Amino acid sequence: MIKVLHVSDIHLGSGLSQGRINPETGLNTRLEDFLNSLGRCIDHALSEPVDLVLFGGDAFPDATPAPYIQQAFATEFRRLVEAQIPTILLVGNHDQHSQGRGGASLSLYRTLGVPGVIVGDTIATHRITTANGEVQVITLPWLTNSSLLTRPETEGLSLEEVNQLLLKKLQPILEAEIRRLDPNIPTILLGHLMADRADLGAERFLAVGKGFTIPMSFLTRPEFDYVALGHVHRHQNLNPNGNPPVVYPGSIERVDFSEEKEQKGYVLINLAKGQADWEFCPLPVRPFLTINVDVSDQDNPQQAILSAIEQQKVSDAVVRLKYKLRSQQLESIDTRSLQKALQFAHSYTIYPELVSQLARPRVPEFGDKVSLDPMEALKTYLSNRNDLQDLSEEMLEAAEKLLAGETGETTNSVESKEQLNLL
Ligand SMILES: [Mn+2]
Q1: pLDDT digits (tens, 9 = 90+) for 246-289
Q2: 340 CA distance to ligand 1 centroid (A)?
Q3: Ligand 1 centroid distance, CA of 116 (Å)
Q4: Domain limits of the chain?
Q5: Which superfamily does CATH assign the domain made up of 2-282 to?
Q6: Which single residue of 228, 312, 324, 406 has CA 20 to 30 Å from 70?
Q7: Rounded to the nearest whole angstrom, what is the distance from the C-alpha of residue 92 to the centroid of ligand 1?
Q8: Would you state the pLDDT for residue 403?
Q9: Are 8 and 229 in contact (CB under 8 A)?
């Protein structure tokens, strides 16, 4: 058996605004959180010890991390080099630099010739000799148009057509790699991609319009014993009833509030030809907490907000407090005492929101004769779309702003909202 540790979406340097400077280290506390999580993964890799570590891509928020963040990443992976554990660093969309080839933030490790470290920035098969036998890994980094297509090929095509063309090009390339595989050696596909069955996590916000999806049929090949993915931040196995397992370990820390309720961790695999026993290893990450309270019908809105805070475990969490109120209630809110109630949070943000006049139903007597208010129409639509629930608040906010710009009707409420934020 070959033991493999599969970790992905480290995003070191993300979410710094949700931390503060640790006076003892001079580092942002959220960077320390991410580093602690990464450190635990490496600890586990060393204590087993595993035979191979696969990183599924997205090391940093972008391809040009600050030197101290780049160094913190290198310090953790150096421990694997010292223990002589082979490691593949796959290039994700956040690692790619738009200028020139090979400009990814991770290419540095190949340039330096770090022993045992492979940088996966091309589609290639790597045959690796581990302490417990050989394993072959096909690397499939995040693909962009320019990785497989030339400019004249894509000219005049729609995004959808370009994606189709990209898939058409990818298929024979992948097929060629598969045909060259040694059928007697355990095989892993390591890809940074959006599979067409993935339940989207935060990446839908980060990559809207840029990406294309890869059909499951490309991944669930009998030649693969395990498919190690990166990109989607929510842990999941896309092939729960079959083989091979097609697994996103997810991110190692909560990158933003869209990951508030997700468990974070990495995956440990016992691999043999035709067999992959894997388990998800949860990481004890910092809690995120949204407190949503509508006090617009409360006689004592301040007290209502405070008791909503008291009912939650605020301590050490990254908290956002959202409260809805009427403009007449503004004077009764004492922001300083709300801040005091949140003082034991790791960090907090407070979002007051005025109940929009537009959101109120029109005079009911008019019934069907009045054309439907667009905000009501959108709300009704969203309430029927469970899959959009996480997005609905932002969509409604965006719609309100659009309407305000178009008709001027909601200008007042938007302006007062901005004034509120200045409080
Ligand atoms: Mn990604």
Answers
A1: 999 999 999 999 999 999 999 999 999 999 999 999 999 999 99
A2: 38
A3: 24
A4: 2-282, 288-422
A5: Metallo-dependent phosphatases (3.60.21.10)
A6: 228
A7: 5
A8: 81
A9: yes
